[in-house]
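COMPLEX REQUEST
Ligand: zinc ion
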Amino acid sequence: MARTTFDALIESSGKENRRQQIAFSETNLKKMEYYNKHYQIVTDLYFVANAPVKLCDHKKAMERECRFCGRSKPEVNFRKKAHAVPEFLGNKSLISMNECDICNKFFADEYEDHLAKWFGPMRSLCQMRGKKGAPKYKSDEFTSARGDKGMELFVNSDSSILKEIKESGSGSFKIPVPMYTQPFIPVRAAKAFIKSAISILPQELLSECENTIQWLLGKATVNIDNFPVMYAFTPGVNPYRIGKAMICRRKMPDAEMPFLWLIIATTNFLFQIMIPFCKSDRWIKHGKKNSFEVTKFPTPFPEEYEKKYGKTVWYCEDWASDNPVVQNREASFHVDKIEEINVNKKKNKK
Ligand SMILES: [Zn+2]
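STATUS: Structure written out below.
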């Protein structure tokens, strides 16, 4: 089977020649074929580059306009550095020149904060690096932080977690611990993703998403009663290396599948989210139940990777709710080493 550009995700390490040697699973090859047939990648951007990547619609300064509210100077300013994709997702390089300061603040306060809270403890455990590095996670049971040799968990010597690890024998351990997110509003977290999609969308596709932009600004009369967010979790240490964002555009004009997909792959996560309210999605009837079959995006890790670290697992959540929720993030740790330390009577497991 011929490989396609849809295997590009695994190449985040930049080792182009590796592509030739990777043995992909049959499932992933089928997915790549599906996407190659039905979709075209119209945006493909890494989160880290040697120099900032400035996404810019205007040719002359006087033509500068906000992609969201449509305003320009002097009505609005463009002084703030607008990350096209939130910085806490690992985006260091993608800067939008098409986002005014007012919209920038609105998105950060109203939406991005909720998305950050959805990740909750995973931001620390998956080492998602924001402005101040990856945050620490603290609970009654343990604290986690990045150490010299990887993730370090600190637990008290009388903790039940430590007892469990010791009882399960020597070598490696998997300890499921309940970890909770802070309360967040799902539809706002969803809007943070869609805002990112609009920021990285090719300019010629903006008119497709006029209604999407109105929805983002809270001006749409339509609401969403189902917002599926699909994501894949791949175990291991930072499997996607340098994260990236992609937009995939449907090739056929009237096929019953989403016109635009947003793909964000960072640390251990790959998100696959359809951009709602696209004009070319005429097959979606608002106010009715729409269902369609989704071929999940390829998560092309070689079979040997899966054997070593574990298989990629897909999840689907409905993020339509406008009410705050708290989620439990079940996590398993692979513990290599336990060490006793006497700092504030804490034990250190590595
Ligand atoms: Zn604006």
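REMARKS: The helical segments are 26-38, 101-119, 121-125, 160-167, 186-200, 210-216, 303-309. The chain has a mean pLDDT of 84.
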